[in-house]
Each structure stands twice: as structure tokens, then as C-alpha cells.
Specification:
Two copies of one chain form a homodimer.
Chain A (H helix, E strand, L loop, with lengths): L2 E4 L10 H16 L6 E5 L3 H5 L4 H8 L6 E6 L4 H14 L5 E9 L7 H4 L13 H18 L4 H20 L12 H5 L3 E3 L2 E2 L8 E9 L1 H7 L5 E9 L14 H14 L8 E3 L5 H10 L10 H4 L16 H4 L4 H17 L11 E8 L4 E8 L1
Helix pairs in contact in A: 1-3, 4-14, 7-11
């Protein structure tokens, strides 16, 4: 990975969808000093519904003035950015491209309510009428009840979960490009407004506008285009049963498990080798379940990583080092490419006040309610 | 390519989007005797708008009972099926997959009018209010006027273009799975209802429901899964300026030219080596422009391939051998995978009454008004 680019996340960006994407893409190309690429893979979840615009790959190639190149769009709903990153990786790995750019862009902050469109990522044959919130709050309720049955107090659980939001906000406050740059105290998080069941506002990521891009090239050439190239050591994807209610155990993110297993194998590493983790904390319960599926906590114990401080900078496994989906923001189709840019900044030693230690990072991106999960491992 | 599957094209298929896709995918897997795959790449253009369903890759993997595999969706509007085929090719070529399945599915025939949603594949910043028909009819008008300026009669042009529709219908009549299985005489085609300018009903492909799938595996293994594996010798993609009016010469499909040049180079062949051509005859003018861009006719002369009989079975370059988009039908996100299945049937010698001679075939797929064009070359 030789180039990264992103724009600050805002509630509503005044630029058009195209101009936002072009700006992030240009920055990634300039970062590497590259003018021509072979392929562009775009990710965007809601452009057709909210801006009436399809054909996002061609739109961005045109906006960049790059004619004749390959340009396609890749989709995995809220994990689309990771799907674009994977497409770029496959393109370079297959030898089809020397330079492949992944660009994610989303413009959803000005929408009254994107909820019903986001819900189209759920199984419409069996989950019609559900939303991400109704499903995720049920998962959280089940998780809480299981823990409470084994003697944990609700207060302790609420505290554990709240730490995930507190950590994200602490990190986001130091990131000038984050959307929610405000402090969140443990007490406020624990007592935040209830959305549904045990799900509180502090458990949910915000709707916003953003765009981010990453430029990949073959490993052998990377040294010529970056003083500190970062290796994408693994890329994988796995799916689970589409309908959450049909999963054997809905509290086990089996797509996370299968995807991370493939990635660990590709990179030849184990969970112990991971120094920090850009987790898909669209909802804190999803971050907790990912920790468990990826081998960082036992089943039903992931929340303790909050209470024990594991997830904070300086902890054993820092999460969401630039604010994560919760504080940096979650412009769905672009989110994973923000994660990727942030990891590259960390591994280059360019993370400023957000810098954490380490040379191996994990990134996970979730499409729908755990249905499609992509894992990437980055190393310097 | 070791497995192919498709369902008959109908105006309205009674099956759900998922069940249509699963049926085509199962047929492709059974054709190869393969039960487990590594990756599934889905193509579908209108599911979110017409069925309220996103996440088509995961939906199909779930419908097939294949959990833990990679499943993503790839998009290039009306060329999406070719984008899924390319994704499968890159996945196998990179070594990431042993078996990769491309599945296209579209359910649009029951819609009152898909035109405004299809038009989202055009540049909404500069072509708002346009549709495929308004743009394509202007291209055709320009093409006619150029030819007439050089002394060709309008009658001669109309006859040339009409042969493209007549050929497609003749071939489609012999294909039990085609949508428009009715004969079209040259006279009827020449005098068909005017849609706009020189564009007549006989120049346009129909809206319908369909699904098709193709299974790829690494070349070395193909002999174990098929008695007559077909080699995908080249896969490429190129884009043009998004806004048709900004192209230097809108009658030169430069994305077709760039994409086919890349493909010829990959396969190490020239236009003379192509035995038949599954062309993207969504509109006859696009087929004519593709012939010119791919090196089969001089600029402004492609229509003569109709009059001269080049494009009919037994001609020098048979087109649309199972009816093409015009007669077999154009369920947009699935179309290119029908093209791929048909080429495999030809190269296997399993095309029945549609059989043409040859061992090298070209396939081209157009997204939007020539903005994104993918080329694939198949050989036995």
C-alpha cells in the first residue's frame, strides 16, 4: 500500500458525491506520486437511492480524468469499502494490475433517515420490517441475559460496553478528521438515551458523509513509491446465514471467525501477533462479538476487554485508534477505507497523537448484521 | 470454465430473485459436479430499487447453503454480469480461489417502467433527464447523418441496421430459453414503430427476468471437472468519459477499443482469429459501433456487416448466436452471464440448432451508454 487519502468526515459535506471521491482519490495518488493506475474499485452503498446515481466506478474514473482504465464498483453493504480493497488486492495479486486504487464514498448525512435503505442489506424474504437497530438490540439483549444468568450484574455489563464508546471518543477527539470530536465520559455512556432494549445511543455509530482511498501496487515495486510501504498480508471474506434468526448461535459471528481464520492462515500469524485492531464498531455489541470471534476473548467475555482497559491506547489490544465507526464516523460505503488509511498511518508512524505501538494490525468490516465479514491484515 | 447454468428468460418469472439465482447457480455447479466453491460474485443492477433487496452475494450464498465462503456483489450497470465474470477470473488467477462462481440475476419484467432507474447509470451531474433511449437515438441519428452525407441512402442504412435484429430473432427462435421467440422479417424490422429519431422498436432489446451462472476453476484442474473445459483466455475492462456529449467522437466507443485491445494482447490474437462474437446488442447502434471498435469494420461501415450477411450463422462473423440481447433478452445484471453460457455451449459443440463453427469467441458487455466496457475472449 503506497498511497492513502481521505477527507474529513462531516454531517453534510457540501461537495458532490463525485467531488468527494475524487478528492480522496487524488490525495492517495499524490501520496504515492502516481499519476496513472490500471484499475479503480469503487465502493458506495446508497448513491442510487439517495443521489440517483449508479455507475460509481466510472463516475470516479471520469472525475479523475483517467480514461481507458478499468473501473468497477464492488458491494458488500456496510463492508463495501473492504470489498473494494479486496478487489484491488486480487487485481494486483493476479498480475492484472500494477496499480489498483480502492475508493469509497458515501453521502448519507443529509438524509432524513437512511434506516429503511440500510435495512435492504437484511434478508427481505424473512426479515422484512426489521432494521439494523431492531436486530442488533435483540442480539445485545440476548448477550446481556446470558451474562446475567452467569452472575454478572447489569451494571457491570453496561460499564464494559460503555468503555468501547469512551475509548472511541477519546481517540476521535485527537483526530481532527473525525465526525464526533466530543468527549464522552463513562458515566454519560452508561446512562445514554435508550434506543431499544439494552441498546443505548452510546452503542451506535453516527450517519455522516465521507470518502477515503487506498492505492496498492505489487510488493516488488512498493519501495519506489513510498518510503514506508505497508504490506497487505492477508485479505479474506466469509459469509454467514443471511437471516440472523436462523444462525445456530446468533451470538457467534461465524463469518468473522471463518474470515479471520483464513486471514491468519494467509499471513502465517495468530491472534497473539496482532498489535491493534480496527474493529467494525457500528454498534458496540458487534465490536464485542468480533473480539470473541477473532480469538481475543472467550465467548461471552469480550465486554471485559472494555472494563479491563485492554482496548485503550497502551492496552494489550488498542481498538478504533482514530475514533472508529463510533466517533470518526460510519459513512457506510467508505468506512473500511478510512480504517485502512488509519492503519497505514499507524504503521508508517504518522499517527500523531493517535499513535500506538506495533507492526501488525487487524481490520474487520461487517456487512449487514454479521452476514458478510471481510478481514485484512496489515504489516510493516 | 467448467460449469454453466441458466433459466429460461421470461417477461415475469414467478420465482423470487433469490430462487432464480439459486436455480441458475445450482445448474452450473451440477454441470461441473462441484459442491463447494471458494467464492461467489453476484451481479444485479436493480434489486435494491425494484425488490428492496441489497446484499445479493450473501443472499445467493445463503440460498445455496454455502456458508463461510466469500460472496460479494460487483457492479458495472448493464455490464455487471461481465464484471462478476471478471471478478471470478481475478479470484482464480490470483490463487485466492480454486473455484469461483459468477451469478447474475435480474427481475425487472414486472416493472411498469425501469427506464428512470436504468438512467441512473448515466452521469446525473450532466445528463439528468436523459435516458438510454434519448442518448442512443442521438448517437444513431448522428451515425445516419454521417453515412447519408457520404452518399448512402437512408433506406440502405435502415436495411443494414434491420439485419442485426433479424439475425438475432432468427437465432432466438431456435433457442427455447429466449424471451422473444418470434420471427422478424426484414421488412417488419425496417418499418417497425419509431421510438425516437431513427431508433425503432426493432433496434431495442426487451425488459425481462433472468439468471445465469458460470463456474471457473484454475486451468490445471479443469480437465477433472469437465470433458470439454473452455478457456477464458482474456478478461479486460475499460472506461470512457462518463458524459456522452463530452467524448471527442461519440461514435467511437473508445472503452470498447481500449478494452478489446487489452484482451487481444492478453490472448495473443487479432480480430481475424475471432470466429463468432456475442455482442452487446441492447440497441443495434451499439452492436454496430462495437463491430467498428473491435476491428471488424471501418468507422461508419459497421452496418454493412448486416447487409452483407457477415453477422448471420455461416457468415464470416456470426453475432448473437442464441438471439443476443435483442431476442434472447436483456435482464441487465444477468445478461453477460447468458452471453458467457452461450459461448461455452458453442465451444463445447452443445449449441444444437444454434451451433456455429469456431474455436475462439469474443464477448463484449456495455455499461451505460458505452461508459464501461468489458471484453472476454473464450477458446477451446
Amino acid at each position: 500500500m503506497v498511497g492513502i487519502g481521505w477527507i474529513p468526515i462531516e454531517k453534510e459535506n457540501a461537495l458532490s458525491l463525485k467531488d468527494m471521491g475524487v478528492r480522496a482519490a487524488r490525495m492517495a495518488l499524490e501520496d504515492a506520486g502516481v499519476e496513472m493506475i490500471d484499475a479503480l474499485y469503487a465502493s458506495n452503498m446508497l448513491g442510487s437511492e439517495l443521489q440517483g446515481q449508479k455507475h460509481i466506478g466510472a463516475m470516479l474514473a471520469d472525475g479523475l480524468g483517467l480514461f481507458g482504465i478499468e473501473a468497477l464498483q464492488v458491494d458488500a453493504t456496510s463492508a463495501s469499502g473492504a470489498a473494494a480493497l479486496r478487489a484491488a488486492w486480487l487485481s494486483v495479486a493476479s498480475g492484472a494490475s500494477d496499480f489498483a486504487l480502492a475508493v469509497g464514498v458515501e453521502k448519507m448525512g443529509s438524509t432524513e433517515d437512511a434506516t429503511p435503505i440500510l435495512a435492504r442489506g437484511l434478508n427481505q424474504e424473512e426479515e422484512k420490517g426489521e432494521t439494523m437497530v431492531t436486530i442488533v438490540s435483540r442480539l445485545m439483549d440476548l448477550y446481556f441475559k446470558n451474562a446475567m444468568r452467569s452472575g454478572v450484574s447489569e451494571e457491570a455489563m453496561r460499564e464494559g460496553f460503555a468503555h468501547f464508546a469512551v475509548n472511541s471518543h477519546q481517540n476521535g477527539m485527537r483526530n481532527p478528521d473525525a465526525f464526533l470530536k466530543k468527549e464522552l465520559s463513562l458515566e454519560s455512556a452508561m446512562n445514554a438515551r435508550v434506543i431499544q432494549g439494552p441498546l443505548r445511543l452510546s452503542d451506535c455509530s453516527p450517519v455522516c458523509d465521507g470518502s477515503a482511498a487506498v492505492l496498492l501496487c505489487a510488493s516488488g515495486m512498493a519501495g519506489s513509491f513510498s518510503d514506508h510501504p505497508v504490506q497487505l498480508s492477508a485479505s479474506s471474506c466469509a459469509t454467514d446465514r443471511f437471516t440472523v434468526g436462523r444462525r445456530r448461535d446468533p451470538l457467534v459471528l461465524s463469518a468473522s471467525f471463518h474470515s479471520v481464520e483464513k486471514a491468519y492462515r494467509q499471513a502465517g500469524i495468530t491472534p497473539r501477533d496482532i498489535d491493534f485492531f480496527e474493529v467494525h464498531d457500528a454498534f458496540s455489541i458487534m465490536a464485542v462479538l468480533s473480539l470473541e470471534a477473532c480469538g481475543f476473548a472467550e465467548r461471552g467475555k469480550g465486554w471485559r476487554a472494555g472494563t479491563e482497559g485492554t482496548i485503550y491506547p497502551g492496552g494489550k489490544l488498542p481498538l478504533s485508534t482514530f475514533g472508529g465507526l463510533k466517533s470518526r464516523g460510519h459513512p457506510v460505503g467508505a468506512t473500511a477505507l478510512y480504517q485502512a488509511c488509519e492503519i497505514v498511518r499507524q504503521l508508517r508512524g504518522q499517527a500523531g497523537p493517535n499513535q500506538v505501538e506495533g507492526k501488525t494490525a487487524l481490520m474487520q468490516s461487517i456487512g449487514g448484521a454479521g452476514t458478510t465479514i471481510l478481514t485484512h491484515i496489515f504489516q510493516r
